[in-house]
Amino acid sequence: MATVTDVTGRARFERALAASEARLQATLNSTGDGILVLEDSGRGLEVSLANRAFRDMAGLPAESLLGRTLPEIVRLLVEQGADPLSLDRFVSAFAESREARAEGLSIARPRRALLDLMAAPVVPATGEPAGVIITARDVTRRLDSEQELRRSVEELRRAKAELEAACRDLAAAQKEAAERNEQLVKLNAELRSLDEMKSNLLANVSHELHTPLVSIKGYTEMVLKRRLGPLTPEQERGLGVALKNIDRLIELIDNLLSFSRIEKGETQLRLEDVPLWQIIDEAIDLVGERIRKRNLTVTTQYETDELVVRGDRIKIGQVLVNLLTNAVKFNREDGRISVTARKGSKGFLEVEVADTGTGIPKDALGKIFERFYQVDATARRKYEGTGIGLSIVRDILRLHGCTIRVTSEVGQGSVFTFTLPQARDQEMSASRPPSGRGRTQS
Asked: What does pTM read for this prediction?
């Protein structure tokens, strides 16, 4: 006796079930979150399904998961570097209620990852839990970004505090600077007032001294020429010394008057075309007596006889007199002074005054044109003077749009070179000296 059973329906059912499972697995594998399905068996919860995302997150092959119990899964995760305490709390939570969450669970292998885990019960129509679904979401980037954001916020807070402190310091510094600036403005106004008073006093005193000194000089010269009677040798020597000092005072007062006018901006140039040799000769004649007393030799050399200056004859003469006076004062006995004139750069002439004197120290070369500066400013200095002669020279040349420079070596003398405006018309009469030749005086 044979029994025939029609299994067609069962085969169709099994095929449909297999297809459904395949679709479910494909669906689960397509999700970005990890999914682990554990079903209740006689010996507890066992893994019945795990998608690709969960296996990748946990670094576990598929065959090592299916059929594993929950404690075995926990052990595998711990082996992969998960924190056992966090896992124990997670497992304990859903063992009681079949619902649990674990945030930021750290997995070290196969790569560092931070996972958010969530457990939810599987409840069929019977109402009795039949298993649990655990989902895992990789939140590494989000948590790293949040951590980086927190660091940035903290850095911003520190930067804000530092900026606020810097702003307070800056405000205090600005306030202090404003107060100091106000003090400086007041002090500057006081100094300007004092400077103006000084200039006015200097001008008035110099002017008041100049007139009587000129008269005294005139009478002294008359006495020396014996127009008022004979003189004894002693009287003549005494009057000679007096006349020398009178000339020194007049020269000093003239310099002070020039200094005062330049400082107050009251100097006006009377421009004219003058042969340069005439101004040089006049200056040499003015200091001729001093040259002879020191037994000095003066030579002049002109590049051409067509050197004509466009400038203030008196003030350019004062420049030369001041330079020649220094050349005499600081020279050695039987020394030499040379004055050389030549064409300079376009539109200018160049004059050089050289001596064989004591020279100027290198550290003083940049200061000698400053007002009241003296190389030796001690009370026992060897040479007399006020220290304004060279500053007047510089200022007069500046008024003409010209410059002056100096080179010197101690013990070897000094060379002062300055420029003068060249007249446009160089054809005016300049009968002496012949071109390329000079004059010697001793």
From this structure: 0.52
